[in-house]
Sequence to fold (232 residues):
Amino acid sequence: MDNMVVLKNISKSYKKNVILNHINVNIKKGSIYGLIGENGAGKTTLIKVLTGILSPDGGTINFVEEKRNHLPRISAVVDEPAFFNSLTVEQNLIEHCKLLGILEKEKIAAIVLTLGLEKHKDKLAKNLSLGLKQRLAIALALIGEPDLVVLDEPLNGLDPEGIMDLRNLIFKLHKEKITVLVSSHILSELEQIATDFGILKDGRMIKEFSKAEIIDSGIKLEDYYLKIKGGK
Ligand SMILES: Nc1ncnc2c1ncn2[C@@H]1O[C@H](COP(=O)(O)OP(=O)(O)OP(=O)(O)O)[C@@H](O)[C@H]1O
Fold:
């Protein structure tokens, strides 16, 4: 499978704290890339560098053009979901579409259905539960039909039904050949979702591997992770 994004030798420090230490990342086109790492390993920082929220101190990020003059479009859900609190779910989607110049009512209706927001579309964003805010943030990220969707800890705040819905949604994106990067601490869930993985430890990418490697190892992702990072 061809790469969609290649990060080479990426470094990032906050003052004297080295957070990303000469990191290489290869995200294959059409893959679901599970980013793993303990608290503080640098996952969010890496995601922010990848999505252009932060500039790296060094290294390169190459997006592979599929067609001439078509760089992949990226959408990300990072940190606190961002939307207009005093607008409803539907109004938020309309405003976002206006910004993107793609106001199509059918598209909004479809995304509302896909994200299970139908019952909640007239609620003000500020009155949504954490899980529903997460769903709205994902809806906003998807409406522009990106090539790469980046979800930082998307399972946080979701109930079991929400987790199942998100899993199905990611599978749906995968079928549509959209590349997905997802970070999570819930390795049992990531094992079901992802096709490829990267383990960050102390600011270094210590291993990238495919799901086939886990299957061949005969052990669960969690045990594999502990083995690689030296915990077992
Ligand atoms: N704006 C900032 N200024 C200074 N240090 C920061 C800043 N943002 C993050 N850090 C530090 O960078 C390190 C990596 O943080 P990051 O959020 O990337 O880790 P993470 O792997 O996403 O962790 P978690 O799983 O807990 O979300 C942490 O030690 C954090 O305290």
Q: What stands out?
A: The mean pLDDT is 90. The first strand starts at residue 3 and ends at 14.
